[in-house]
Amino acid sequence: MSNSYDAIVIGAGHNGLIAASYLARAGKKVVILERRDIVGGAAMTEEIFPGYRFTEFSYVVSLLRPEIIRDLELPKHGLKILPLPSTVTPMDNGDYLAAWDDHDQTRRELYRHSPKDAEASDEYGRVMARAAKAIKPMIGMVPPDPSSMSPRDLMGMLKLGQYAKSLSEKELYRIAKLVTQSSADLLNEWFEFDPLKGTKSASGIIGTFLGPNSPGTAYVLLHHYMGEIDGAFRAWGFAKNGTGGVSAAIARSAQALGVEIRTGAPVKQVIVKGGRARGVALENGDELQAKVVLSAADPKRSFLQFVESKHLPDEFTTAIKNFRVRGSSGKVNIALSGLPEFTCLPGEGPLHRGAISISPSMDYIERAYDEAKYGQFSKNPYIDMIIPSMIDRDMAPPGHHVMSCFVQYAPYDLEGGWNDAQRDAFGETVISTIEKVAPNIRSLIVGKQVISPKDIERIAGITGGNIFHGELLLHQLFFMRPAPQWADFRTPLPGYYFGAAGAHPGGGVMGAAGKMAAMEVLKDWK
User: Fold this and answer.
1) Is residue 391 very low, low, confident or very high in pLDDT (cuts 50, 70, 90)?
2) What are the structural domains of the chain?
3) φ and ψ at residue 466, rounded to 5 degrees
4) pTM, 2 dp
């Protein structure tokens, strides 16, 4: 193992792996340093109970950029995406609302509940897809600094202006509205049926400390629509072997390109000499030199922990300190001896292969948020459940199953703090909520793992346990992410770059930040 490299990447989450791969593709000698013993960051799969494999944190893949899949030849390295064919929302009256991967079937299903919403739904889908397409160029663009006169930023502003000019007046107004509106206001304009609005609004609160009535949540909804553009309608999928399968494929691609991956190598500090980042010191005392250091950790770790404050301007440090990263999501992973039976659709059926959403109405989710606002976890939480073993049989022993439950809200700053008793109580709340729609769940439980935002912080190393490394709020997007004037993947410390979910364009298993950061490093290389 050498001690001198062209580039050091801190953190082997999917963005770090992608950044390293692009640097290696350009002929650079690259090492990735990962504090844990496995790669993947929050996108990884572990066997929690013997024979039962779980995607511990993130669990669906939809946003991974198609150009990254192509450039890094991920299918050749084992990436396989299995479709998630449906979303079923059990209703309080014992009925259900379903969205299937068959458009006509979904339309008939909606018609059964509300002819008006069935009519509105296609048009809503088209409008959202058009809006997502319209902002897609911004997602792939390095955000210019509007306050700067540098040629690069002026060109960026020009590009932004030309792009805005290419939009129709209607599209411009629509985007302005979407970016500032609450998902409740947006959905109330289109639909009348509560379970439909509840389920759609859930996409607007995922990973945020906001409720459906909070302004800005309509944009988060749009962010989740990105995944639907690149593939078929509802292109949310589940990776073979869980999201760990995605990270493993990227890691194999990186190694094939010559990237050295060191696990169990926590970074203590970025070494600064002559006003430039020159390498890193590991916690075990080893020092590695490099021309460039790129952090794929979250903004707080990258700037408040790895770099001594004297190397960064005060206003930058303050902006990072104020960057909002409050985690609001918990996960409950359950090992089951059989298949849960849902009252609304008895027997084994297609609903077991898709997502099951506990989101009966927007008010239900808003009330769940009210409790979180005051430091409690929700007594009646929003839950998004999938049973990965129904899609990928290798995830559990024959006849047995694993169930992944994504839960909101579980505030990071829980009153009295997260301890074993609180974690058990949270797990119990989730089980009893599921029991209302699947009464046999309790008798099937072989084991369960309850993960709070504190655990996400401890295990995955994400400050505040926020799955997007920072909330997708209007004042934390585009040229404000992670800090004004520093959204172009560079940092105030020369030679130190930043490319993680806390950078533009945000979180999700997308990889855009890692790729764009690497491209900026290569532009500066000369």
Assistant:
1) confident
2) 4-42+62-80+241-324+466-524 (3.50.50.60), 115-192+203-235 (no CATH)
3) -90, 125
4) 0.90
